[in-house]
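Run log // design_07
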């Protein structure tokens, strides 16, 4: 990506939220094994130096409809407690290992039922819309959560430019496959590439977002550089990282976690406190940096905006 020198920006500044004490508390909670349901972890990987990441210029501050009124999770927590199995299955592995990923140059293959297929350089894809900030809740299926100030473009604006055809009922996404850059792919913990997908009306929803940055700067590799999906009303595993393909399909696409364990991870994966994961409750969640659990909200707090997409659908069966 070729990005011009930044001007002063009003977007959320990572320095405001850098809070060592929070990280130390989090590390202590992790050491006690109390941090996450189903995934005990120890220690904390070194977070990246935010100042080493390029600041993104000309970013519109988050509009009221796209910012939650909650304190963003610290930059350190967002960038050092990750799921990115291409770099290992531990929460600290991505921050330690993802330096081997080369996010520049980058392109995305667009194919399927679409008027303008092709291999699209990232900078062309981003020409679809001006960069904007979105401050969203993010809820992992493992019952931890965060609030993240993302930077990127609305997914709908990108999709429109490719002119999906009449048979395009779904959009499928794939992550890069390259064990040189992603050493975790030497083990077949997942049938690589990592795959995800959305129904077309979900993908066109104004909340669906393609992020290229967070906290005013380009995405750190461990967060899915250079471009990832963010679907705030769904469990975090839908938010696929380091995207290299978008395919417009008639049939519901295969998705990694649903393929791996269909009884535990559905295609829809809408955040739903009333439908438990078979191995743990989804009623509550632990916000990174906090001790007490808080109630999980239907559709992660975005029910007013998105519940209508699922009218008539049995959300217990279509979980
Ligand atoms: N994308 C890829 N390619 N590989 C992954 O392992 N993990 C998913 C999702 N996207 C994953 C992925 C899961 S389970 C979660 S919770 C989020 O990324 C975590 O995003 P974060 O590390 O930026 O918090």
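design_07 sequence
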């Amino acid at each position: 990506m070729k990005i011009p020198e930044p001007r002063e920006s009003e977007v959320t500044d990572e320095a405001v939220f850098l809070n060592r004490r929070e990280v130390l508390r989090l590390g202590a909670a992790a050491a006690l094994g109390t941090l996450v349901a189903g995934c005990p972890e120890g220690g904390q990987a070194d977070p990246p130096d935010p100042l080493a990441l390029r600041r993104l210029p000309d970013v519109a501050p988050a509009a009221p409809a796209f910012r939650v009124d909650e304190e963003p999770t610290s930059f350190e927590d967002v960038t050092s407690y990750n799921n990115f199995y291409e770099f290992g299955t531990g929460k600290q592995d991505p921050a330690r290992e993802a330096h081997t990923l080369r996010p520049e140059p980058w392109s995305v293959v667009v194919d399927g039922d679409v008027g303008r297929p092709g291999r699209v350089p990232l900078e062309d894809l981003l020409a679809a819309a001006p960069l904007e900030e979105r401050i969203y809740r993010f809820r992992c299926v493992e019952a931890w959560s965060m609030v993240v100030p993302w930077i990127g473009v609305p997914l709908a604006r990108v999709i429109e430019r490719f002119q999906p055809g009449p048979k395009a009922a779904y959009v499928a996404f794939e992550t890069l496959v390259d064990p040189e850059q992603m050493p975790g792919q030497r083990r077949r913990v997942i049938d690589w590439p990592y795959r995800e997908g959305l129904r077309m009306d979900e993908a066109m929803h104004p909340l669906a977002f393609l992020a290229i940055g967070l906290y005013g700067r380009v995405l750190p590799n461990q967060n899915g550089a250079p471009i990832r999906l963010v679907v705030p009303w769904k469990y975090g595993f839908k938010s696929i990282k380091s995207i290299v393909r978008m395919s417009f399909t008639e049939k519901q696409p295969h998705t990694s976690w649903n393929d791996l364990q269909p009884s535990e991870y559905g295609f829809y994966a809408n955040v739903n406190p009333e439908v438990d994961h078979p191995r743990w409750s989804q009623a509550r969640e632990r916000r990174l940096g906090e001790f007490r659990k808080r109630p999980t909200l239907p559709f992660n707090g975005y029910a007013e905006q998105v519940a209508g997409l699922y009218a008539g659908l049995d959300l217990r069966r279509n979980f």
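The longest strand covers residues 144-154.
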